Input
Amino acid sequence: MLDHIVLAVPDLAAGVEQFTERTGVRPVPGGRHLGVGTANHLVGLDGCGDAYLEIIGPDPDQPAPPQPRPFGIDDLAAARVATWAVRPADLDRQVAEARARGYDPGAPRAMSRATPDGEGLHWRLTGLDPTAGEGLVPFLIDWGSTPHPASRGLPVVRLRSFEATLA
Output
């Protein structure tokens, strides 16, 4: 059910360069989050099904948004894994089941972005509360009829392991 891991960076171009230097793989532009002030680059995660790594940071071609950028990007001094997403088979049912067990992941909300070639991507996700479980609790995502980003011929790196612990 892993959908993607979010690597937040204070400078997107520098973050992509650092990732490329460390892995030998250059992430491709994913798109811009208009009005949010961010953009991303993506790389597939080999051996993880349709999963990918999102490198997200300030978009230098957008003005600063009126609200803080997600994942604490405005306050970052260095790159950090900010959160991760899982893709349940039925997002609404999963939210209802979580609430029935005493945890509210947040109401699903619609989001979108344009790819560099202008294609519109649309998805729904639950809240992105960075304090939820100290970052150990993933958010939920549903791509609906939009083709999954990992299906777009991304360059890939192998994810050897992934675990989350409290610091």
